[in-house]
Amino acid sequence: ESREVAASIVEALEVLRATASEHQEYFGRLDAVAGDGDHGQGMAYGSRGAVQAGRSAVEKGAGARTVLLHAGDAWAEEAGGTSGALWGAALIAAGSVFDDAEGATPDHVVRALLTGSDAISRLGGAAPGDKTMVDAIVPFREVLATEFGATADLAVSTRKAAAVAREAADATAGIAARRGRSRVLGEKSVGTPDPGAVSFSILMGALAELFGS
Ligand code: ADP
Ligand code: MG
Ligand code: MG
């Protein structure tokens, strides 16, 4: 059972990789407005590294927690940059809810998503309104926890949470960046949504589709 969970995690990482790669150009364009333009590359390289590391851990018989630990390390290393370090930490934190020897329920998956996304807020230290990933993460977590609590339906609650996160990410277009590299060019960012918030919400939307399929 635990091997099945580990294999499912690699499948989920592969969905993130395919989605990041599909949107690489778009994420890069968003980051080029007030940042250094490398967010598409960071997300594509990071997620690709995570899949490779996760897959090789599975081949060596690793369980869910260990797979996410290796995948998170690889994401941070291959992506470089602020968002890569935060995504890497999120994967490692998500892994902490799994036991290598046990199976997983939808409840585990929701807790992994809540714990992983919370790590980004804790480690990044950004507050809502700073125009970062956190602006998408806060409503994502709120809706995911509430909806799953009410329905116990993983696919439906993740889909709703991702949709609300996407709206929140789009709404960051109205504010000036205060954190990360783009703080220097904060005013320039008005009119363009935060790249990290947009990529987070799009990747969670893709994950929701996987859960629903
Ligand atoms: P870099 O800024 O190092 O080039 P990326 O371009 O990959 O890294 O990522 C930029 C994104 O990282 C931003 O759009 C923002 O969402 C996110 N980010 C930057 N700093 C923080 C922070 N302190 N907390 C949360 N997210 C952050
Ligand atoms: Mg950048
Ligand atoms: Mg950079």
From TrEMBL:
Residue span(s) of domain DhaL: 7-209
The protein's name: D-erythrulose kinase
Span within the parent record: 361 to 573 of 580
